[in-house]
Amino acid sequence: MEHRIGDVLIEMKACTRQELQAGLQTQSIFGGRLGTNLLELGIVEERQLAAALSRVHGLPCVGDDVEPDADAIAALSPELVERFGVVPLHADDRHLRVAVVDPRNLASLDDLAFATGRIVEPVVAPEARIWALLRRHYGIEKGLRGLAMDDELEAAPGREAAIARNEEDSNRFVSHAEALRLIELMQDPVVLSALLVRGAASSVGRAVFMKSQREHAVAWLGSGRLLDRDVRGALVPLDGSNPFGAAAELRAPVLAPVVPSPQTRQFFAALDGPLPMNALVAPVILRGRAVALLYADLGPGGTLREEAVALLELTAALNRRFETLSPLAA
Taking a C-beta distance cutoff of 8 angstroms, is the pair 131, 142 a contact? Predict the structure, then answer.
């Protein structure tokens, strides 16, 4: 489907073939569907993606202003919508209209019809719109693609170095020098991202690699001798009121005091314990956009100083490597 949606978007002049390659590169790093990556890169607009999906599948496609009926939301439990990856839009005694990403999955639609006792009528929707509706109406966060980092590392070339354990510590990290060396050699984007955060962990107490998803950054992989919790999935809004949003908007590293706020509460709660005095947030740049962020601190009460130089060196090395591997996307 991805190749077809790309061809249709080019035919619609929604993107160029070069821009399509940029979307494919980010897809190889962070997973998800091609349209979602093009949307997050700002290459296509949601209305263009919706029109292309409608042409690909020959079905109506919901717009960004879609609002499900309250009765439809009540008709399906959170367990069912998460299981089938659908959002109910309208329901009556016999019919159920649902928004889906891939209406060609007839087996899944048949199972949904059996589970609900209704005739299922699918309409297509961009993956990002499905995620937004699931989050708004069910509190389900589905935009965490690429989080199975360890599974992917197990199958990736160079995995032994990328996930090597320090014998004196329970967390996985590699030395700063070794991370820099391996970044120049590796080609697998997942391994490269892991090398960044695990190389950073050799200099600081806690390091977190975060995927930028338009309005939010979501924690993807954490490492560090002071990080003993799984932070994956923790969200931070990307607005100018916090260092995360500033780093993404400016496309430049931000070293700033850590000030608790409602916007960053979930993220720092995931880190657990007292806050550090300051932290560094550095962007990972692809095609002129901050597609990811590196967060680093020295743990409760710690103050980053000279360590910031090593962190910036690692981030710059990763940015250069991504440019080398995908010059069209740089």
Answer: yes
CATH assignment, 70-136: 3.30.300.160
Asked whether the beta carbons of 206 and 222 are under 8 A apart, the reply is yes
* 297: DSSP letter: E
Residue showing tokens 């821009």: 19
Report domain 149-329's class. Answer: alpha beta
pTM: 0.69
Q: What share of the chain is helix, strand, coil (3-state, %, to 5)?
A: 45, 20, 35
Rama region for 211: left / alpha / beta (φ>0; ψ in -120 to 50; rest): beta
Same fold, 70-136 and 149-329: no
Which strands, in side-by-side order, build the sheet including 216-223?
Answer: 235-237, 216-223, 206-213, 289-297, 278-286, 254-257
pLDDT tens-digit series, residues 172-223: 679 999 999 999 998 877 788 889 999 999 999 999 999 887 788 889 889 9
20 to each of 4, 128, 243, how far by Cα in Å?
12, 18, 30
